[in-house]
Design a protein that fits this description.
2 copies of one chain form a homodimer. Chain A has a single domain (about 10-345), classed as Spore Coat Polysaccharide Biosynthesis Protein SpsA, Chain A, CATH 3.90.550. By secondary structure, chain A is of the alpha/beta class. Chain A is about 35% helix and about 15% strand. Chain A has 12 helices and 9 strands. At the A-B interface, α8 and α10 of A face α8 and α10 of B.
Amino acid sequence: MFKMVEDDEVDIVIAALNQDLGFLEEWRSLISRFHIIIVKDPELDSGLQIPPDFPSLSVYTRSDMEARIGPESLSLLRFTGFSTRYYGYLLSKRRYVVSIDADCVPLKDNLGRPIDIVRQHLANLTTPATPLFFNTLYDPYAKGSDFVRGYPFGLRCGVNCAVSCGLWLNIPDFDASILKSGKRNDRLVDAVLTVPKGTMLPLSGVNVAFDRELIGPALFSGLILAGEGKVRHETVEDLWCGMCVKVVCDHLGYGIKSGMPYVQRGGDGETEQEIQMERTMEGTSLLEVAVPFFQTMRLPQSAVTAEECIVEMAKLVREELGRADPSFARAADAMEEWVRLWRSMHTKQ
Amino acid sequence: MFKMVEDDEVDIVIAALNQDLGFLEEWRSLISRFHIIIVKDPELDSGLQIPPDFPSLSVYTRSDMEARIGPESLSLLRFTGFSTRYYGYLLSKRRYVVSIDADCVPLKDNLGRPIDIVRQHLANLTTPATPLFFNTLYDPYAKGSDFVRGYPFGLRCGVNCAVSCGLWLNIPDFDASILKSGKRNDRLVDAVLTVPKGTMLPLSGVNVAFDRELIGPALFSGLILAGEGKVRHETVEDLWCGMCVKVVCDHLGYGIKSGMPYVQRGGDGETEQEIQMERTMEGTSLLEVAVPFFQTMRLPQSAVTAEECIVEMAKLVREELGRADPSFARAADAMEEWVRLWRSMHTKQ
């Protein structure tokens, strides 16, 4: 059912927040045939330790960022912490991008073989999404599923799937307030579904893939708290990005799938971190303002590409949220600068 | 987490389309402590064979229908075929109604014990639904789940859950065109989720439960094809009912959950039926007209109860769809008559 994807159509993007990238060894059999983009967090001083013998691997560091986009733009876009990966998204020239946090390793099947998340993400992205009507049997284009009786025939062709949001076992991706409970996620739900049109979701940057040609310019955040980005439970960048990309997908008629594939997440590092309650509260209150804004946002019909959508969205962010908190005004500036950069790098001559 | 439900707050409603109700034996351990309402299809001539020793069981037949609501109303409401069960819904006086098709038996766990669908339906109905924002970890109120990071705190209390749509293994509930493939559904997805606000779903009558106090008057169809109702793959009544109830839930601020529990469906009876292509095509084309109608329907703010919503909806059906096909005009008449009956039977004196 799904389109063949060539190996050279895929980029694996990894943000290096710590110097030791030994976790890549566990991914070797799944990702070594693809081009791998590693972006080193510009705030990380020490050199990277990367396992040898990945045949196609590019590493980008602060000096590359400065040479390519300049310190002023860099200070606005803040490619640091988990947002480091956006620099990799910007540089990718391939159709599909798969990005996983560096504290994740593959799940194993019953025979101890790593489960192929790239394959599953590509299956999600290369089969239609169905955001216009709910299918009770989940993604009808997934193996073993179909459209249930009564699913309108006119909607069965679906729409292009632009984003595939994977999940994780072990360390959950909860807010700081819940995280300390010591709860582990050991429940794998073998399903994929399309998030319906008009419904926002909390997109997590832990394990995500997207069709860069369809939606690439929308995969950027802009909303980053001061000091954010070293631990996921404080992060708002991916949540903001998720709402931006969902509004753009709804507007342009693309779908977002959520569910499989899973990765195995973290040791206990995340829960052992000191929780910065001040930062956590700041993120929470910004999101409480942002959610109804995104839920009711309407983009003009004149915006017909992801770039145009983000430019229009940045205007709305500045006008409607900018006064509520300077973080929003700064996010709007960053979104516009991102699109400017994107255009300069990707516009065909 | 979920509210205790007393046994006498639950009605099990079964439509008897065939005389042999021996399948109830398989349900005995799960349902015998509840009141069971059996409604005999008025088009069925032979007497019913019901296993003995269910302590609380009421049987209603054509003569009861005629005495209670009269032949004229009966001919309009057409409680026959799968729509027979609506008569049971009308007569129920308990808070929760669980209804399963007579070709379904319980799934068994690894020890051969039947899996308790009533318990799961009640868990779905007595915990909040979350239709206003998507939770990537499915129903956050289900055991073993929670809200994922970034789920807005202001929306975590959720809303009342009015309907729980269960699923089925073995014989799938596909349209006639797919059904003949011989495909079986053997994939159980261990999840429940809320269908987001604004998204329609193909509600199946195979395995469904609802909170009668919240939404009872909306659980009726009115759209029934001539001769429909003996085999599910021709049925449109539950699909129409599902779109009505979804619009009412969205309007009144209630949620609909879909997923667990599963039942084991059918022998091979359904697929061996001759497919009536004419009836199938008629149903399909009516739904193609009805879906966009329901997707864009807005009920007036003055409608604040399920009864009022259905009355308003009937008007819209007559005005906007009535000319397209006489089946719609008849459905509108039936919906109004249903509410009139409901009020006469349930309004507190």
